[in-house]
Design brief:
Order of helices and strands: EHEEHHHHHEEEHHHEEHH
Strand order of the largest sheet: 1-3-2
Radius of gyration: 30 Å
Structural class: alpha+beta
Distance between the termini: 55 Å
Low-confidence stretches: 94-131, 180-186
Largest sheet: 3 strands, antiparallel
Mean pLDDT: 79
Number of domains: 2
Oligomer: single chain
């Protein structure tokens, strides 16, 4: 709609309409194919000769549409623009039948006249702003999206929450220890207790919870982000025991196994620093550094 001479390329992905999620109308087609037909229909309504192509990209959604030429002369651009406005409005006011790509799209026939009735006499503000505001009420997303997955929280704040939750689990019950019998070593390592997310939240400071509520997933997301320390299963929080982690698959190619074994340690081991019993693994078996001298 920006100009008669404009062309377009679109690679449909997520199933969205003009005002929200796309609602399926034909069960005989796959959801992807039905949505592709809908996107092609939009190009046709906008007066383009729509071409379909398949990109050579590693994706399951690689069908694209190209509009390089119009189906009407430039003199009719204003008239077609009004038809586009009616079509957009009709997506809210009536159930538009899917366009049969072999026959084309007849707006009046598919809508049973309802769309024409709803859009033939646009409001004054729509007529006046047809060239500037194409869809009144549309709210685009911000140019800079706010990251709210706990990843942007201050490091000191995250470290404080992790330490508080870990101490809570370690002190929740008398020494719930696990014996390491490998090589005849009978030393114990405190695994602590498991608590529900609600129980953990009840023991945290109100200011901490208030800050976490502004993040998607809140406390659970923060704990899952700290995979080294915690394991969250079925709504319960556990301290992770790295001795129970599955060893690398023996089916991996030799080169990959060698690279994983020689991986550089770029982070300090939380257990080596904070756990009262230290790390449950020896330094050579732990994926994290036991001291700054092991950092690479």
């Amino acid at each position: 709609r920006s100009s008669y001479s404009c062309c377009y390329f679109v690679l449909p992905c997520c199933f969205f309409d003009f005002h929200g999620k796309y609602s399926r109308r034909q069960s005989k087609k796959t959801q992807y194919r039905e949505y592709l037909d809908f996107v092609a229909q939009i190009g046709f309504v906008c007066g383009f000769r729509v071409e379909e192509d398949c990109l050579r990209i590693p994706s399951t959604k690689r069908v694209s549409f190209i509009g390089k030429s119009r189906t009407y002369p430039a003199a009719e651009h204003a008239l077609v623009d009004k038809q586009i406005t009616q079509f957009i409005n009709s997506r809210q006011t009536c159930a538009v039948a899917m366009w049969d790509r072999r026959v084309g799209f007849n707006h009046e026939d598919d809508c049973g006249g309802l769309c024409k009735e709803a859009g033939s006499e646009p409001h004054e503000d729509e007529t006046e702003t047809a060239g500037t505001i194409w869809m009144p009420g549309f709210q685009p997303r911000e140019k800079v999206e706010q990251v709210r997955n706990c990843a942007s929280l201050p490091r000191d704040f995250v470290d404080e929450v992790v330490l508080n939750v870990a101490n809570l689990l370690l002190n929740a019950a008398p020494q719930k220890s696990c014996s390491d019998k490998q090589g005849g070593n009978m030393s114990t390592w405190n695994q602590g207790e498991s608590l529900s997310l609600r129980e953990v939240a009840e023991h945290l400071d109100k200011e901490i919870l208030k800050k976490l509520k502004s993040e998607y997933g809140g406390l659970q997301t923060l704990l899952k982000n700290n995979h080294q320390v915690f394991e969250v299963l079925n709504g319960r929080v556990h301290i992770r025991d790295w001795r129970k982690e599955k060893p690398p698959s023996k089916t991996k190619p030799e080169v990959k196994r060698r690279l994983s074994a020689e991986a550089f340690k770029t982070r300090l081991c939380w257990f080596f620093i904070h756990h009262p019993d230290g790390c449950s693994l020896p330094s050579e078996a732990c994926p994290y550094a036991h001291g700054t001298e092991e950092l690479r």
